């Protein structure tokens, strides 16, 4: 989030809503209320979900056997 703010890729409120933990629906509602860019907020949440779903099996495959159970 700091990199987004330093490079001025997004307004602070959009960066906070994009990287905040929570449900996508709830944060989209908050983005609508505060007038943030919905495309930016939704795109970041979808990418976060995408990377978690694809990244979890990769990380599990790299863990030693003693940590898998």
Core attributes:
single chain; 69 residues; 4 helices; 71% helix
Folded structure, characterized:
This protein is an all-alpha fold. Helix content is 71%, strand content 0%. The chain has 4 helices and no strands. Helix 2 packs parallel to helix 4 (38-62) and helix 3 packs antiparallel against helix 4. It starts with a helix and ends in a 7-residue tail after the last helix. The model has no long low-confidence stretch (mean pLDDT 85).
Topology:
Layout: H1 2-6, H2 12-19, H3 24-34, H4 38-62
Summarize the structure.
With 69 residues, this protein is an all-alpha fold. It has 4 helices and no strands.
What is the C-alpha radius of gyration, as a whole number of Å? 15 Å
Low-confidence region ranges: none
**Tally of extended strands?**
0
How far the N terminus sits from the C terminus, by CA atoms, comes to: 33 Å
Q: Helix and strand string, N-terminal first?
A: HHHH
Number of helices: 4
Helix content: over 70%
């Amino acid at each position: 989030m700091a990199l987004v703010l330093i490079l001025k890729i997004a307004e602070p409120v959009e960066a906070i809503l994009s990287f905040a933990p929570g449900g996508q629906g709830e944060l989209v509602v908050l983005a609508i209320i505060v007038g943030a860019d919905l495309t930016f907020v939704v795109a970041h949440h979808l990418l976060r979900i995408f990377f978690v779903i694809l990244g979890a099996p990769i990380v599990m495959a790299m863990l030693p056997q003693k940590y898998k159970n």
